[in-house]
Predict the structure.
Amino acid sequence: MNLIGKRKIWYSISLVMIVPGLISLAVFGLRLGIDFSSGELLVAAGTPSAATVTTAAAGIGLQDIQVVQSGSNQTQIRFRDPAPQAVHEVNHQKFKTALAKAGVEELSFDSVGPTVSSTIATNAIISLILVSLAIFLYIAFAFRNAPPPVSPWSFGFMAIAALLHDALFVLGVFSLLGHFFGVEIDALFVTAILTVIGFSVHDTIVVFDRIRENLRREKGSFESIVNDSIMETIARSINTSMTVLLTLLALFLFGGQSIRMFVLALLIGIASGTYSSIFNASPLLVTWHNYRLKRMAKPRTSPKRS
């Protein structure tokens, strides 16, 4: 099967996957949870209805109240308090008392201020940048002895392109989910993105390593060697990913509500990572190699003498 020869098809599929999410990110952005936008989280015993919680909050001035079951006998109540910070604890106690009158017991309460949420958001962005840079440098170092015609920097760049593909796809999907279904992202979402990046790079390196081995022992065009390397590793990549995806699917269906969106991010990202490592990262090596050959083949025009 000539997968490399059909690389334009794989690139087109990737664009179809990513472009709607990018448009959504540009227009709607991400729906941020209290970890990034400040707010309060109250964990209550039992499974009170949204109507019960809303009634208890009446007259206090709380906004954006969300009631989500987080276990067999627990409920997460998220809300924002527009009042000044000094009044937040007073409103919390009023809300707690109103819930108690309705038969709802508070188990824990967390409040994230705007300063803390801004710090978390900044640290999350810095973490993603540093991880990508570290991965790029490590791959370039690990493939420093790769035989020509591909430089070790090319391996690093294409691995980064593949992981960006996966990260942007997950971000785009959650932007759409946030706009149409109210799904918020929290600090756990950043953990999911970092996990997806790690899995994507791991899968990509498996194919890259086989390309390096085949460049040393096989003769033929670079395109055919890359295609052979993909075909030799595709079964392993799919089988490895399927075992992970089946486990995550079980967690998504039968796990707690509190980790469902985290698991969904992993499901989407790892499925995308499997695709990108096979159909994007290695074909991009061939595309870049062919581009360099065309540039080198162009005749250089000498400047005209006056």
Observations:
- The chain has nine helices and four strands.
